[in-house]
Each structure stands twice: as C-alpha cells, then as structure tokens.
Amino acid sequence: MHLYGTQEVNETGHLTIGGVDTIDLAKTYGTPLFVYDLALIRKRARGFIETFKQLGVKAEVAYASKAFACVGIYQLAQEEHLSLDVVSGGELFTALQAKFPAERIHFHGNNKSYTELELAFDSKIGCIVVDNFYEIQLLKEISERKQQHMRILLRVTPGVEAHTHDFITTGQADSKFGFDLNNGQADQAFDEVKDHEYLELLGLHCHIGSQIFETDGFSLAAEKLMNKIGEWKEQSNFECSVLNLGGGYGIRYTEEDHPLEPQDYVSEMIKTVQALAEQLRLAMPEIWIEPGRSLVGDAGTSLYTVGSHKNVPNIREYIAVDGGMSDNIRPALYDAKYEAVIANRASHNKTNTYTVAGKLCESGDKLIVDAPLQQAEPGDVLAIFCTGAYGYSMASNYNRIPRPAVVFVEDGQHQLAIQRESYENIVQNDLPLSLKKSE
After folding, report:
1. Is residue 290 marked as binding?
2. Residue 414 falls within a domain, yes or no?
3. Per the record, what are the reactions this protein catalyses (predicted)?
4. Are residues 13 and 71 in the same domain?
5. pLDDT score, position 312
6. Which entry of 70, 127, 361, 386 is annotated as an active-site residue?
7. Which residues of the chain have pLDDT under 70?
8. Which of 5, 122, 222, 273 is the most buried (most CB within 10 A)?
C-alpha cells in the first residue's frame, strides 16, 4: 500500500494523517470528508521555491488555486511565500477575504468580465494574464478610465502537446486559451499592448497541459517562447522581464504514475531558459510557474462511510459510499483512477475486489472500478487517496446533496476549514413560485 506525506497505519490498524486517526476524524466531522495534509503541501511548495533559490534564479511560484480554493488554503499559501493564480472573481474575492497580498495575485481566464477586471484594478493585483483581443480592449478601456497602470502577460498557445488526457491539454493550437504563437495572433496582440500608456507588458505565459511526467514539453515550450521574445527584442527592442511556463506537473494517483520531483521540473526549465537567453543575447527573465495539483493533489484524502453492498455473480461486486460524483466528478469526467483503503482495517491484506459506487442517481457514478480492498462492511470508513485537487473545487449539489466538510491536519492537530453544507444551505437561494395561474 502506497502512503502519502504523513500518512501512517497506527497500532490499532487505522489510517492516520498528520498524526490524527482518520476514524476519529470521521466520527468528529462526519463523512464524506476531505482531509488535507498541510505538512505535505508545505513540503511541495518549498521544493519548488528552494530549487529556484539554490540555482540563483529570480522566480515566483504561484499556487494555481482552481485546484482547491478556500480562505484557509490561501492563508497557507501566503505562509509559504507563494504567489496566487486565480481564474474568477470568486477566487479573487476569496483571496482578498483571506488578506492575501494583492500584489502577488495573478488573474487568468479566457472570458474575464468587465466587473471582474474592475475588481482586479480596484484591488491593485499584481498581474493580469491576457487571453484574447476582447480582453485587451476591456483592459485599455478600464485602465484609461481609471488612469491606472496594470502589469500584464500575454498568454500564448505554443503548439506543444503534452503527453496527457485530451480533455486537459491546453497548449496545442486548437485551444480556447490564449493567442496562437504560430499564426500571427501573438504578434498582433504584442503590437496592440506594447506601447500602451497604462498596460505594462512583462512577457509571455503558456500552459501546455496537466498531469505531465516529463520535462521535454516544458523545454520545448520555453524554446518557442524565448525565440518569439528574441524576435520582438530585435524588431521593437522589447525587454522581456517575465517568462511564465505555467503548471501541469503530475502526481501519483496509481502505481502506473511516475511523477518527477519539483526540483526536476524546475532545474530543466532553468537550464533551457538560461541557454536560450545566452544564445539569443537576451537578459535572463524572471521565471514564473503555477503548480496547483502538484501542491495539493496527493495531500488530500476523501473519507466515506460504506453503506450498501451488491454482488452481481460472475460480473462485479459493488460497495456504495455516502458520496460520489457530487464531491469527485473526475472519474466520470476524465476516467480518472484512484487507489483506496478501508481506513479502519488499513493493516489488513486487500483480499477483495470491489467497484466503489457513489450514491448519486447516475449509472456512471463510480469512484473506483475493481478496487483491491480489505473486506468491507456497512459502517466502515473508506479512504480514497489523492483527491486534494479538483475534488471539492468541482463539487456540486447534484441530486441536492450537500457539499462535504473540509478538514486540515498537521502535527496531531485538526481544524475545520470548510463547514459541511446543510439542507438549509441548499434551499437558501430558492424562491417560492409567485406567478399567478391563468384562468
């Protein structure tokens, strides 16, 4: 059994995280429950930051918070000297509520609204990553009306296809994101912003995909961006101060996954950019990256209570839990794979094979198909590993199921980070029918 971060099996045979018994957590907070190992998040963050420092390269490591956003995780990011990548007004508002330093917030998104961009200006955030020509016009209008400066990056699609799932590959030419680097769109965007009175162009941004286990794609993307920067330097004397190579660093979900360490990704990027800067006679830009999943993914564990059991002879044996696709849509959306353990029998051998079904009224609501597990009985606690990214953040109230609670654990302590929704929460925005029935 592969354990992550501070996970251990204690003397009673229970799974523990951060020195806290998961069975006690389930009793205290109920299930479904997301449990985050703060020590592991800190370790991952420091792995990225310290590598840049050791190699003497100026950098910003921005947490891509779409992976999991809440006030507490933003406060942890601030403690670890991370910057922050937000992709909506809601994420930006949450960051401001957490008192995250606005100057370290970067705002992404392919369809930022006028209201969202005004909030970004009013909050005096550090950078907006510009995605399209419509956004350029909005930024010009807002900045000129407010007579306010804003630092920007141009997001480009470099035409690099990462070795990943089609649905989570965003750097290829056919993408809703960014200006195409190869068809002249990036050059046109550069011409539109380079001399603007209030928009300060720092450089370029790209993101080539997610769940990437090799460095070649990042190196190729860096090469394409640096060559374009070299062209702009020669044509317009543009000095690029920032090169943002995005995120997408993979984590281990199952034994089939073989991720690299943070320092491996970082060191290869630096090596590529330094070589190209020297070759093209450019100043070495500051390197920004945006790890999201790789910071919180394997630090999160979902706890469920086992309920019903169904045996289909010669076909499949099911166990059902008290959550499902409402708190983890990834298996249905991406065919994502996970590993699990019966947390109250973690020391026992995995002698059974179950398909773990959720309680949602959908035949596709299966969290794990054919999972090797210990003998499972109603009332047992099932722990599914590596659910820290895109679990809670993509959760819904489908079937009017309340979203789970979220708990942080560290050094034997536990703290509620997000309260469990109630039925009252679900109906609080509903309004009674007031239209009069026609006679």
Report:
1. yes
2. yes
3. meso-2,6-diaminopimelate + H(+) = L-lysine + CO2
4. no
5. 94
6. 361
7. 163-172, 439
8. 222
